[in-house]
């Protein structure tokens, strides 16, 4: 089985008077365009994971997520595309929404479980699928060394060298992949991660564990807007303005927070004049569907 997707992820310049005033060139890598559903870092994290499942002769993907998990949706779509069966453990009470509709539409079976049981994902896997030799465990968000390996390939695609790269951080897998890719290419680029969870410094341990070599990077931990999946009117207004001015959809959970952080740091003259900055659009635009009631027009 050929487990691959054609990568269409152009780099486009973002035009804004703020960047002109500060003497910066800012670009965005459109990983959201890789696939309508298996987009952004979701595909990059799944690529080698699915290849490993195929290598082991396992064709039943078992993974985990919340009610609006882009990872669950992407795994469901990837399973359908590449001939796998898929089951998703859902955190919390049974609900119905647009995300879960898309999961079911692609053939994913959903198992709702209480939050206490959900904390031990390996135990859940063993309880329900311990006797299923065809079952393959995929951690929440696709977090794994294989996931980081797939993300590292993003650096191979860059048309030039940048002074800074910005990316949102959830599990730390994408950050670890990008940092490893920069290290592998011996690039001087500074990686700037924006954790979307409160107290995001804890991600350093997870990122360091997945790095191919020890490396320096920065985490900007003050842009979580209350925690994972949380927003504020200020963030929502920023997202609405950004989409209106650029035509690029971004979500409130990941890329919206990362871009807000970038614009705020630029406004505070955080970067040297003449710097070239690349931001990574990690997809996840379907996350807008779970928060549309927070957008008033």
Gist of the model:
By secondary structure, this protein is of the alpha/beta class. The protein has helices spanning 17-21, 40-55, 70-82, 98-105, 115-118, 121-129, 145-152, 173-184, 203-210, 233-246, 255-267; strands spanning 11-14, 25-30, 60-65, 85-91, 109-113, 135-137, 164-169, 190-195, 218-219, 276-281.
Secondary structure elements and pairings:
Blueprint: E1 11-14, H1 17-21, E2 25-30, H2 40-55, E3 60-65, H3 70-82, E4 85-91, H4 98-105, E5 109-113, H5 115-118, H6 121-129, E6 135-137, H7 145-152, E7 164-169, H8 173-184, E8 190-195, H9 203-210, E9 218-219, H10 233-246, H11 255-267, E10 276-281
Parallel strand pairs: 2-10, 3-4, 3-6, 4-5, 7-8, 7-10, 8-9
Antiparallel strand pairs: 1-2
Helix pairs in contact: 2-7, 3-4, 7-8, 8-9
> Uncertain segments of ≥5 residues (pLDDT<50)?
none
Averaged pLDDT: 96
Basic shape: globular
- Tally the structural domains: 2
* Secondary structure tally: strands: 10
User: How far is it from the N-terminal to the C-terminal residue, by CA?
Assistant: 47 Å
Give the CATH topology of the largest domain: Rossmann fold
Largest sheet: 6 strands, mixed
Level-1 CATH class name of the largest domain? Alpha Beta
- Whole-angstrom Rg: 19 Å
Q: How large is the share of residues in beta strands?
A: 15-25%
Number of helices in the DSSP assignment: 11
SS class: alpha/beta
Q: Can you write the helix and strand succession as a string?
A: EHEHEHEHEHHEHEHEHEHHE
> What percentage of residues falls in helices of 4 or more residues?
25-40%
Strand order, sheet with most strands: 1-2-10-7-8-9
> In CATH terms, what is the architecture of the largest domain?
3-Layer(aba) Sandwich
